[in-house]
């Protein structure tokens, strides 16, 4: 599951994993240790290698180094390619709600208003700065890979209603 922040990757990954009977893996939980400490590249590679060794799995996240290391293990990339005009307001709301309600994310870490709005590494700023680059990278990286590219919330809903690529049991 790939796409910009606020596209709904976590929600769709959870639904898809439930349909497959597997536990979803969130790359943010692999990347961010408690206390907002970043895992080392070796720790990340080892963790994702364990995941892709399973018979079935669903992974949510955009970490290109992890995605690239295991391209051949992926049966289907689901790209939630929603436009910035949709994802940015969603991301903004999510950040504010998490900060005010103290909703944990990424291994129990908490977002703060300061970290969201005033930090040089603000997720909002990051989303604005990386949107175009991520689209170009994914277009190139997934061109010869099995993938579904969903460009609107309606397309995502329709795909999920059709079974989300999960074979019938």
Features:
169 residues, mainly alpha, two-stranded parallel ribbon, 12% strand
Kindly state the mean pLDDT as a whole number?
Answer: 90
Question: How are strands sequenced across the largest beta sheet?
Answer: 1-4
Low-confidence stretches: none
Strand content: 5-15%
Structural class by secondary-structure content: mainly alpha
Number of separate helices: 8
Number of strands: 8
Q: Whole-Å distance between the termini?
A: 22 Å
Report helical residue fraction. 40-55%
Overall form: globular
Rg over alpha carbons: 16 Å
Any idea how many domains?
1
Order of helices and strands: HEHEEHEHEHEEHHEH
Q: Biggest sheet, in brief? A: 2 strands, parallel
Account of the protein in words:
With 169 residues, this protein is mostly helical. The chain has one domain (9-161). The protein is built from eight helices and eight strands, in the order αβαββαβαβαββααβα. Strands 1-4 form a two-stranded parallel ribbon. The protein has a two-stranded antiparallel sheet with strand order 2-3. Strands 5-8 form a two-stranded parallel ribbon. Helix 5 packs across helix 7. The longest helix is centred in the last third of the chain and has 20 residues, at 123-142. The two termini are 22 Å apart. The mean pLDDT is 90.
């Amino acid at each position: 599951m790939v796409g910009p922040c606020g596209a709904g990757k976590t929600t769709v990954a959870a639904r898809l994993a439930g349909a497959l009977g597997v536990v979803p893996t969130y790359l943010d939980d692999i990347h961010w240790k408690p206390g907002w400490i970043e895992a080392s590249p070796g720790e990340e590679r080892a963790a994702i290698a364990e995941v892709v060794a399973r018979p079935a799995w669903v992974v949510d996240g955009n970490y290109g180094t992890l995605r690239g290391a295991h391209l051949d293990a992926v049966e289907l990339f689901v790209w939630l390619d929603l436009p910035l005009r949709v994802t940015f307001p969603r991301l903004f709301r999510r950040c504010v709600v998490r900060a005010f309600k103290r909703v944990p994310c990424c291994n129990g870490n908490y977002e703060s208003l300061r970290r969201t709005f005033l930090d040089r590494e603000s997720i909002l700023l990051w989303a604005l700065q990386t949107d175009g680059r991520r689209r170009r990278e994914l277009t190139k990286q997934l061109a010869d890979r099995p993938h579904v590219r969903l460009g609107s919330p309606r397309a995502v809903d329709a795909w999920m209603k059709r079974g989300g690529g999960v074979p019938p049991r």
